[in-house]
Amino acid sequence: MKQSSVKWFGYLFSFVFLITSCAGTELTHKQVNEAYKGKPVSNILVIAITGNEDSRRSFERKFVTQLKSAGVEAISSEEAISMPADLEMKKETILNAVNQFKNDAVIITHLIDKEEKEAYTRGSEGHRGYYGFYHSRYLYSYAHDPGFSRTSKTIRLETNLYDVKTEKLMWSGQSKTLSKDSKDQIINDVIKVVINDLQNNKLISPK
Q1: Backbone angles phi, psi at 187, to 5 degrees
Q2: Spatial distance between the Cα atoms of 13 and 21, rounded to a whole number of angstroms
Q3: Element spanning 163, H or E
Q4: Is 17:167 a contact under the CB 8 Å cutoff?
Q5: Chain segment 26-77, per-residue pLDDT in tens
Q6: Among the CATH numbers 1.20.120, 3.40.50, 3.30.160, 1.10.3470, which is that of 2-200?
Q7: Strand 148-163 relative to strand 105-121: parallel, antiparallel, unpaired?
Q8: Is the CB of residue 158 less than 8 Å from the CB of residue 109?
Q9: What does the pLDDT look like over 140-180, one tens digit per residue?
Q10: What is the dihedral of CA 184, 185, 190, 192, to 10 degrees?
């Protein structure tokens, strides 16, 4: 009974460790235009580039919500621009929108890469000498392996912030998310990381 408890505790620990070590979002690449650092913008047009209209709306809405929570005025392209059927906005259309809504910056996000992997983790049991280890691995590998499998998603996005007047790049970041979470949670995590870095570089004012 004791060995069984230890064994299943080992499975549980391995499972929790796998989840916590694999989840999360980070900026893997970042570029800051020093000419703009410390000069926060206050009104941003948010654009997501995607071939899926629902995904675009969802991403932009969440970005606008988080920007407003950070004290920055923002509007989505969904609200500001009548999107054509092919989802490609012309430059003139974007310029008309930023003039109408008095945006001083445009932020654009697009998907770089998406990858899904299924990983299988075998059960674990304490070592009891070389034969004990061999015997336990034989049983669990070929007889009744109580391991588990899970699918992990790696999402890479690029986000660029542009000054409206000069059209120059103010900030650029590439995010990497490795997570089993839902699409909504991944989007929220990416946006949070981007906003935090923009605040740290004083490109948007912290609330």
Answers
A1: -60, -45
A2: 12
A3: strand 148-163
A4: no
A5: 999 999 999 999 999 999 999 999 888 899 999 999 999 999 999 999 999 9
A6: 3.40.50
A7: antiparallel
A8: yes
A9: 555 555 555 666 778 899 999 999 999 999 999 999 988 66
A10: 110
Structure-block tokens of residue 199: 């605040």
Question: Residue 112's closest CA among 54, 38, 28?
Answer: 28
Residue with tokens 């109580």: 146
Comparing CA positions, the residue from 26, 24, 30, 25 lying closest to residue 173 is 30
The tokens describing 28, both together, are 């893997």
Higher pLDDT, 2 or 118: 118
User: At 5, is the pLDDT very low, low, confident or very high (cuts 50, 70, 90)?
Assistant: very low
- Distances from the Cα of 94 to the Cα of 17, 91, 162, angstroms: 46, 5, 13
- Amino acid 39 reads K
d(CA 17, CA 100): 50
Q: What are the sequence ranges of the domains in the chain?
A: 2-200
The pLDDT tens digits for 101-110 are: 999 999 999 9
Which phi-psi region, left, alpha or beta, contains residue 177 (left: φ > 0; alpha: ψ -120 to 50)?
beta
